[in-house]
Amino acid sequence: MSPAGSQKPSWRQSWGKPFDFLFAAAGYCIGLGNVWRFPYLCFENGGGAFLIAYILCTVLVGVPIIILETSFGQCFRSGIMKTWGKVPIFKGIAIACLVCIFHTNTYYIVVLAWVSKYLVSSFS
């Protein structure tokens, strides 16, 4: 039996190789929208000019946020609620992230169902 107040350390998995993490992060970031919608957005919003602005925003905003989120989670080795809950003022960020994840998963399932349906229909 453990002494009062002490907690059993939790075991969490870690990445075995750097390339494992790199491919997992790429799979997280690159989705159907990048392949399907991005060329349409480039065409509708000015082609090369839109591409320059998009790459600039990705490098200056998107990459630092992904690095922050990933390094913060790896540093604490816990889930999103426990990680952002370490600082009580940031608990709202964790709740907002969970709400965004829920909404994204809800509509993304519908898009994947459409893609599956049209893929099956294309063979008949």
Report on this structure.
The chain is an all-alpha fold. The protein has two domains: 16-77, no CATH class; 83-124. It has helices spanning 18-29, 32-36, 38-44, 48-76, 80-85, 91-122. The longest helix is centred in the last third of the chain and has 32 residues, at 91-122. It is globular, with a radius of gyration of 20 Å. It starts with 17 loop residues before the first helix and ends with a helix. The model has no long low-confidence stretch (mean pLDDT 80).
Topology diagram in text:
Blueprint (H helix, E strand, L loop, with lengths): L17 H12 L2 H5 L1 H7 L3 H29 L3 H6 L5 H32 L2
Order of helices and strands: HHHHHH
Total beta strand runs: 0
How many helices? The count is 6
Q: Which secondary-structure class do the elements indicate?
A: mainly alpha
Roughly what percent helix?
over 70%
Domain count, please report it: 2
Q: Report Rg.
A: 20 Å
Determine the strand fraction and express it as a percent band: under 5%
Summed over residues and divided by their number, the pLDDT gives a mean of 80
Give the low-pLDDT segments. none
